[in-house]
Amino acid sequence: MTRVVIAADSFKGSATANEVNAYLAAGVTRVAPGTTVEKAVIADGGAGTVKTVINAVGGQFKTTQVLGPLGQPVEAQWGLLDAHTAIIEVSAAVGLTLAQPNLAPVSSSTFGVGQLISAALDQGATTIYVGLGDSATTDGGAGMMAALGAGIIDSNQQKLDLGGGSLMRLGHVSFLGLDPRLKQTTLIGLTDVTNPLTGPEGAAAVFGPQKGAEHEMVARLNQGLARLRTFVPIPNALALSRTPGAGAAGGTGFGLLALGGQLQSGAQAVQQLTHMAQRINGADLVITGEGRVDGQSLRGKAPIAVVQLARTQNVPTALVAGSVLGDVAAIHAAGVDDVVVSTPADMPVADAMRQTPALLTSAGAKAMLTYLASRDDAK
User: What is the largest CA-CA distance in the chain?
Assistant: First the structure.
C-alpha cells in the first residue's frame, strides 16, 4: 500500500498548517483512495513552534505574563517538554502581531523574552530552546539581557531605556548581575535565517522595514546594534556578531550567543524534537509546501528542510506553493522533485485566498497523480 507523508507549513492569511495538510490529504485520497496518508505539522522557530513541538511529543503548556514589545502586559505561552527542557518563542512575548497596528521599531524591546527564560529557569529547565522568528524588535537582545540581570546603562550611568533606538546612548554593559542559573543552562536559539547582526545583510537593514523602520530609523538601529556589540563584555563579540543567524529576531540571536548560547537551524531542530525522520522513514512520497516560495525559502525554511530530510532517505518529494518568486530551477536544485503551484496564473490573490481549500485539494491531487505517473514510468 502506498504511504504518503504530508508535512506543510501554513499559507499565511489563508490556512493554518493543519488545514493545509488536511486539504492536501483530501486531494491525495481523491485520486488514490487506498493511500495511507500521515500528516505532520512543521515549524522553524517562528510563531507556532511551541504548539507544534508540544502537540507532537507531549509535555505541558505554560503561560507567563511578561512585558510585550511596547511594554504592555502579554500572556505568553511556552512549553515544558520534560522536567529539564523548555521551549519558548520570541513571537509569543514580543511578536510583530503584538505591536500592530502601532509598530514602534525604535522602542520595541525583548525584555519579555528574558522574562520567559527566567520563568523556564524557575520551573527547573536546564535546556531552553528559543524560537527566533516573527519579532517586533531590533534591540540585539538587550532587553532580554536586562530582564536576566545584566546591567545596561547610558554614558551618564543611568539605566538605559528599553528599545533598539536607545542603544545609541549605551555607555556600559555588565554581566555581573546575570542570573547565576544561566551558567548551568544550555540556551539554543532556533532560527530560519542566516543574517549577521549588522551591516547591509544585518537585522536592521533586512528586517527593520517590515517592523516599521524607515531609512533613518534603519541606520540608527544598525548603529545601535554595532554599539551593543562593542560594549557586551565578551572577548569574541565581533566574531559572534557575524555568526549566521546572529541577526535573527532583531539581533536576539546575538543576544543569546552573548549569554553563552548557541544557534541551530530551527527547522532541523524541530524535526529532531518531533522525530520527523521516523515519520518519513519508509514513505513512498512526501508532500510539503508553504504559501510563497522564494529565495528565503531555500535558506532554512521548514518546507525545504523537510525535502532535504526526505532526500537522505531517498523518498521523492513534492512542494506545493501558492506562488513561486524566482527560478523554479533553483527549487529543483534544492532537492524538490515536483513543484506544484496551487494558484492559477491569472487568478487574483483575493480570489485565491477565498478558494484555498479547493485549490490545495486540487494541488494535492496533482502532486499524487504526478508521483503515480513517475512510478509507473519507472517500472
Answer: 77
